[in-house]
Amino acid sequence: MKFYIYIIFLSLVFVGCSKKQDEPDDLAQIVARGELRAVTLESATSYYMIGDNEMGFDFALAQNLADQLDVELKVVIASSLNELKQMLRDGKADFAAYKVPATRSVREEFLSTNVEVMSNLVLVQAKNRKPITNVMQLIDKDVYVQRHSQYLTRLKHLNDEIGGGINIKYLSDTLTIEEIMYEVARNKIPFTVADNDVAELGKKYIKNLHIGMPISISLPKAWIVRRNAPDLDSAINRWYSDIEKSKYLRFMTQRYLNRSNYFNNFNMFVLKGNISPYDSLFKANASIAGLDWRLLAAVAYNESRFNPNTVSPNGAMGIMQLMHRTGKRYGLNDSTFFEPADNIKAGARLIASLGKQFAAVKDSAERIKYVLAAYNAGHGHIVDAMNLAKKYKDNPNIWSDNVEKYLLLKSKAKYYNDPVVKLGYFRANHTVKFVKGVVATYEKYKTQKP
Predict the structure, then answer these.
(1) Could you tell me the CA-to-CA distances from 182 to 189, 252, 308 in Å, in that order?
(2) Closest by alpha carbon to 7, among 232, 344, 288, 315?
(3) CATH number at 121-216
């Protein structure tokens, strides 16, 4: 209650005072205009999009903060940490919903909030490469880091500490650490440096990644605000103190930061002679989707393993794994999301809608791959990949080695910053795997059930 009284009081103060032209926005001004502007970076831990849905741990917390302040959240994406800090300086954002390393220069210029984690820097290399266990083994080795980053600063200090010899190679600041770790895992570059928490999460979805020795002590990373916005800093700290031990924060931490294969605890249950316990429902709704019922069943199997009660780490619900907003658009309400009959019907309606949206892909066998990809990733990301295929003179109406290729390339800055791309960064490995999985499952079902 004190938190809300504090906000209302500051709002009244603002209404009673005239704002100078060059006065920076603090909490009262934010509440009065009804909009909280968060600047962040696209990353697996902070912010990304799945379909039309904004996701990410820092994004979810920022949205909760905005809800508590009773204002709208506006997210601004910076291309690098330097740009993020500059946006704060220029007043284009109110705070950074991204955990910025608390270096001396950051502490001097900004206020670090209590939304923080402790993390040390680690060496990252491919699992199939002989591990580095001693800093002296880095002599004559190439280590790649972003040009303007805390990783470079620490690597230079380490190089001085051992008397030199590390070959420091520079990468663009616009590359995400996830992109760089992918290059390491593919053996395109030998070594990089990352925050331990980011590297640990990356290891869960990037194969052939090894987290090596620490190269720094543990230091804080935190959301930051401008020094001339102390009331916003105080409000963030009060809000975070309220949620720090809450079920909400534990749930979001589990959802975004402790992800594992959330199907592991659900064993597929198949009745003898059937594909699933819900065959009659798939058959009843196949005509809505315009699909063989076994293909509709294959979608459900790959989405939920036929578990009608599952909720994914991204918030998708039920046997067909529909996001809340999407499910409501296709007929679900809060009481029917976990009802197999209703969830399957809504999934079939979504598939039918996607089929119409990709009508330009004339070959039905090709079109279904677009539909499956859009079902998993959202229509917009697939259109982006089609636009890239067309621009680079590949075939936008062929999936394999064409649109599929450009969907995967949307995790690279060159492609997600291309003018023909509307939805920006996307990590497509899961979507590509999903399409292949559904097609393979369908082929299997065709041989065992007419």
Answers:
(1) 9, 25, 34
(2) 232
(3) 3.40.190.10
CA angle 55, 60, 63 (to 5 degrees): 120
The amino acid at 139: I
- What pTM did the predictor assign? 0.56
Predicted confidence pLDDT, tens digits, the chain (450 residues): 444 444 444 444 444 443 443 456 899 999 999 999 999 998 878 887 755 567 789 998 999 999 899 899 999 999 888 899 999 999 999 999 999 998 889 999 999 999 999 999 999 999 999 999 999 999 999 999 988 888 888 999 999 999 999 999 999 877 888 889 988 998 999 999 999 988 988 887 778 899 989 999 998 999 999 999 999 999 999 999 999 888 788 878 877 777 543 333 333 333 345 788 888 899 999 999 999 999 999 999 999 888 887 887 778 889 999 998 899 999 998 888 888 999 999 999 999 999 999 999 999 999 999 999 999 999 999 999 999 999 999 999 999 999 999 999 999 999 999 999 999 999 899 899 999 999 999 998 887 655
- Can you tell me the distance from the alpha carbon of 183 to that of 23, in angstroms, rounded to the nearest whole number? 45
Q: Which of 87, 38, 48 is nearest to 377 (CA)?
A: 48
Residue 54 known to be catalytic = no
Catalytic residue selected from 42, 83, 179, 303: 303
Q: Mind giving me the DSSP string for 52-97?
A: TEEE-HHHHHHHHHHHHHT-EEEEEEESSHHHHHHHHHTTS-SEEE
* HEC-encoded secondary structure of 287-342: HHHCCCHHHHHHHHHHHHCCCCCCECCCCCECCCCECHHHHHHCCCCCCCCCCHHH
CATH class of the region 279-448: mainly alpha
Angle formed by the axes of helices 340-357 and 279-289, nearest 10°: 30
Domain boundaries, given as residue ranges, for the chain: 2-117+221-256, 121-216, 279-448
Cα–Cα distance between 237 and 256 in angstroms, integer? 22
Chain-centroid distance of CA 329 in Å reads: 23
Note whether 2-117+221-256 and 121-216 share their fold.
Answer: yes
Fold of 2-117+221-256: D-Maltodextrin-Binding Protein; domain 2 (3.40.190)
- 51 sits in the region (left: phi over 0; alpha: psi -120 to 50; else beta) called left
Task: Give the residue among 354, 240, 225, 231 at the shortest CA–CA distance from 288.
Answer: 354
Element (H, E) at 387: helix 379-391
Which residues lie below 8 Å from residue 170, measured CB to CB, with a gap of 6+? 144, 145, 146, 147, 152
